[in-house]
Queue: 2 jobs
Job 1
Amino acid sequence: MTQSARDLESTFLRAWQLLLANPIVMLPGLIVAIVAAAVESYVFAPWASSIAITSTSGDANVGLAARSVESALYLAFAMVVYIAQVSFVTGMAGAAWERGRATLRDGWQAFARRGVQTLLAMALMLLIGLVAAAFAPVTFLLTLIAYVVFIIYTMPAVIIGGDDPVAGIAESCRLALGNLLPTVAVVAIIALLAWLSGALANAVSAFSPLGAAFISLVVEQVVVAYAMLVVTGEFLKLRTAPGGRAV
């Protein structure tokens, strides 16, 4: 299926309508951002300070071991909260497209059912991304651009479509290749929205750093939720189109 400009426009419009009707889709991202900031400030930052003191005034080996443990715990924490955010937002986006209404329960069910598969998909995507990044300098960034375009439907394929990680990436590539120009347009528009949200935060920071942080947080979650609604809508539309696969 190759979409027309009107088909793509309808996806963006409907995604915006769904976001306005379901602002709760932004809530998981806001919660994750607040929890992550709190844990960083009140758990890992004090621990890092104590490690620094240990390293300079005590046994250096103890300090090195403590830093290694801290890094491992922080990485594990970051992965869990990121997987939770992606699973919740994608699951809720799928529910919004399916019945026009999304709840946190939809997000929780997606996380509970597909959390492990989401982790494995992210790990595989990271490996592919590292390869794309390695070749980026000699391909004028084309490998990175191709990577972003062709993996864009992976999370909906894994979380909503029920694919395993390898099949999810393959399905994303198949859908993107069969609908290349509209998919490139989706990636470009989402990137533009992300850039505009950053520019807005920078403009506000000249007047109020605290206000900029708040606006940046809110606008970022609006963009994340809207982007996932767009991507999920495109995934559902392409996968159920003639020649696609039923979800």
Note: The mean pLDDT is 85.
Job 2
Amino acid sequence: MKDQKAILTKCLLNDRPAFVIAGNDACAVEAMEAYYRIAKEKGCNQAFLDDMKLVIKEMAQFQKDEPEQVKLPD
């Protein structure tokens, strides 16, 4: 799985916009699943899609294990 922190750091260093979804965001898993569907429809390569699946799985597991930390964004 690609290092998410490294990807964000690269965007910040190159003054590129980035969109971050935290694991405690109650909308995170659904948002990432929607992004996955769009990426697949647009033809992203399988390695990217596989990485996305791993990140989605990690987010879902975090939310399952730490439900008291999950909240709606404000």
Note: The first helix runs from residue 4 to 13.
